[in-house]
Amino acid sequence: xxxxxxxxxxxFDDSLRAFLADNLPMDRLRVLAESxxxxxETLWNNLTELGLHGLLVPERFGGAGLGILDAALxxxxxxxxxxxxxxxxxxxxxxxxxxxxASEAQQDEYLPMIAAGECRFAVxxxxxxxxxxxxxxxxxDGRLSxxxxxxxxxGAATHFLIYLPDGHAAVVDAANASTQFHRSIDRTRPIxxxxxxxxxxxxxxxxxxxLAAAHRVLDAGRVIVAADTLGSAQHMLDAAVAFAKERxxxxxxxxxxxxxxxxxxxxxxxxxxxxxxxxxxxxAQDALPDEARLTACHAKAHLxxxxxxxxxxxxEVHGGMGFTDLLGLHFWFKRISFxxxxxxxxxxxxxxxxxxxxxxxxx
Amino acid sequence: xxxxxxxPYRILQAEIRDFIRQHGDKSPKVGGxxxxxxxxxLDWQKRxxxxxxxxxxxxxxxxxxxxxxxxxxAAVIAGEFxxxxxxxxxxxxxISMLVPTLLELGTDEQKxxxxxxxxxGDIIWCQGYSEPNNGSDLANAQTKAELKDGHWIVNGxxxxxxxxxxxxxxxxxxxxxxxxxxxxxxxxLLLSMKSPGLDPRPLKTMTGRNEFNEVFFTDVxxxxxxxxxGRGKGWYVANVTLKHERLMIGDAGKMTARFExxxxxxxxxxxxxxxxxxxxxxxxxxLRLQGEVMAWKAHNLRLLTEAAQGVDSGVKRMIIKxxxxxxxxxxxxxxxxxLGAAGLPYESLGEDAEDDxxxxxxxxxMYDVGLMIGGGSTNIQKNIIGERGxxxxxxxxxxxxx
Lengths: 363, 402
Fold this sequence. Notes:
Helix content of chain A is 56%, strand content 14%. Chain A has 363 residues and is of the alpha+beta class. The model of chain B has no long low-confidence stretch (mean pLDDT 90).
């Protein structure tokens, strides 16, 4: 038994974090927040060199064939840098959808493109994930019609992969969809409403149990969002600790005041165990199928709650500066807020956890 | 990351499951704080030692199972017992602290005399460390022992001595070399609690039980040979003992066991014919705790892996006491809330009997508060996390009274 990261995982993590530190300074993040598409061509293309896009794509389709834990570690690093990259949809959920539900021919058509970063998928997971907002899509004879609100990672999508309530997924070329774009609370990541009117669609039909296959994609997606949230919260905590060691008030470094010290001690006590939780949930997606759904629900719910507290407290530690736009700390606060709501908030995730364990029957 | 157990651990796991299937019904109740082990507990402990689930790494000649130390084996054992909600064996200061100290520093005779009976629960020890004026400053102990005619004559007072009112023996830190420096003047003695002149006076705690004591010494005679390592070596021995104070790694087992009990409590308790677990307000609290316990278990797996690799876990270890006692309290809090008014009747049957479920939960609920205070209080823990873990500056020393 070994509950830790391999040398390769640590090395990939180091290189990704170093790359993001070099390529995404605060002023760059501000520029990207202005455009608000959640996508930067240069950043996206440069990430290809690190092999990020093909992380989960099997080797025979040009990817690295790695696991959900590897993908979650990358998500944590992206969250840590507040990187506007449509990673969740394209790199993780679309890839897993093709692996779980597509025919060999469909995989052969799309997976190499995903691995090469040549397409960007936005994955709409409306009713199954328990998101609020409209979701009324119907599939008939190779065409999709209806409307899905609140799609993430869709600001510069080339394709939509839309899940139907029965667990089937269908691919639509973005050119055949009409989209309404909303800036979100997180200016680095927009939200898009998609309207389809008899749009030509390719249904992924190869799964024996489509709903179970859809849940595997959803569960992994939730773990990825939890990992992103962990990275974001860790960034805020690190920033607050650094600030507390520099800022002087009343003739003292403020980190020497117990009030502030205890706040930070509480943050680390709540947040650090979340890292093990995230590793475990990610590992479970590949290796412990019986625990995959429950750990995903809880990781998403628990991280959302812990990170909300950490986001608030660490903003407070920065005093008035924390509340300004100038410092830019709010990018992470908002990323945590955004992550909380997508793919089902903590309340919905815990409801699913209760259902899974049969805890809702009254007698 | 690989959570699959290799062959020897899978065999061990299967053996434990088999053991629990066969004998689990004989286990004493889990939880309920400290008390003198009753006959049921002693019988169970003996069975655990015989099978290597307690005293596993103690050499055979001293009454143990004689296995080589192995943190993974320890984790598999703790995990299986927790999962089954079966009593995992006695944990007390004799077993956790004195036994490893004697194995490291004691004479062969001391090991033969004390190790076996201690791990079986036949000898209960208390720790004579803190004094009314020397709590944190342990090396300043003033309780004296003078050598006269082959006996140490002990005079003085100890306080916060857990279990002294029912313990058989004490390991005592006392001053035997008044001419030497603070740290070089101490010795470490082993004495019977039945020695004349020794007077433990119980301090009743909020649980209603006598969980610790003041202990007064008036010309207490201790045979000269009852010293560990030698005169003036007491500080060294005491530090070896502290080193062995168990890392709270096993704590995740306690959380798991408690959480399992909590699920069944919410599944069996009803209000107006509806199970509590089906009522959203109760269920939501249970679900939140399930997430917390999951995170705690995973964190412990991380620490366990690092311990096996000999890595210092730093701040990850420093958060254990604060985080663990708070989580424990939140779990017992939901239990007493689920019991509700029906759980209010509270009658602890004392040291030798098994209390009813409600009393046991209420004792845990209160005892957890004591755990937050003892062994470095919550606020001290936050200082440690902040200053040693996050490297924040210390509070400046205020001028004035020391």
